[in-house]
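Hello,

Our lab assistant flagged a job as stuck in the queue for most of the afternoon. It eventually completed. Since we weren't sure the result was trustworthy after the delay, we are filing this so someone can double-check. Below is the sequence as submitted and the structure that was eventually returned. Let us know if re-running is recommended.
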Amino acid sequence: MRYQFKFRPYRRRFVRTLTTNHGKWDIRDGIILRLTDESGKVGWGEIAPISWFGSETIEQALDFCRHLPAEIADEMIFSIPDKLPACQFGFESAWEMVKDDAENEIHKFPASQCPRVPVSSFLSYSALLPAAEAALNQWESLWQQGYRTFKWKIGVDAIANELHIFELLTHTLPASSKLRLDANGGLSYEEANLWLWTCDNLQVNPEIATEIEFIEQPLPVEQFEGMLELSMFYGTAMALDESVATLGQLIACYQQGWRGIFVIKPGIIGSPSRLRKFCQQHNIDTVFSSVFETAIGRQTALQLAAKLSQNNRAVGFGIDHFFEQEDTWLQSLWNNL
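-- returned structure --
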């Protein structure tokens, strides 16, 4: 099968700077692509790289798109190299949409009515809190919007300050809430021990109603053995994130013995079909998470989450408050493809 191929880059500014251990992030760059088959069926895809997380750069993705012909075939889509995982996701997502007649109706909708994946009864959402003290001022508005699971970035300030804010946060969050701590690989082994010890002690404190669900990527990627070791010493669960940014990394960590939580970012993991095959063959504990994509990439990501999530963990897609309303902006982009 052959398809007409068009693409358009985009830039979106965050409402507020996103601060992680990797630094500050102000602008999200990506690419929207469209495939049209010989019968006129349309599929949309999104390429949203995060190079510092392990994917290709936006420049590499654009270069790849610019060197493709206006008409491409199935073989081209499924031969995209593993060094371009965000491209693999974007093209294969569009290809699957063309093949799925039900979802293909997307091309008839304005962006504001872009079809959303039906939310399964078990598919709940986690909201990302701002780093540092700002988290204390924002969780309540997100709670009122219906969020019950929150993620807070750590490893961005002095550990004493963060532990103090953490104590305030856990004493403030309501009963039935869950809190995830995301270090983005920014802790030392000693700091990770201290965080895990603190969380273990909080979990047995009758005054704390908040559940500490897990600590995400406490150590750098190259310290996998250290994370494997820590996971055996403490009751607080740990999750790999940067260590499993791509499908190849995920498979490697599984083969090396990781049986904790895997945070999967579909937008940069690589091929959706290969991801489905691996997850269906291995009963891994997954949390699906956003890469700050638009509604186009989010649709495929949530479809994967709904199909592959095993343990009813909230998906990390509560990030809308980091952007202005996207409907008008996405509609304009849509119309110019």
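-- support follow-up --
The delay was a queue issue, not a problem with the job. The result is valid. The chain has two domains: 2-114+327-335, 125-322. Residues 78 and 277 are 15 Å apart (CA to CA).
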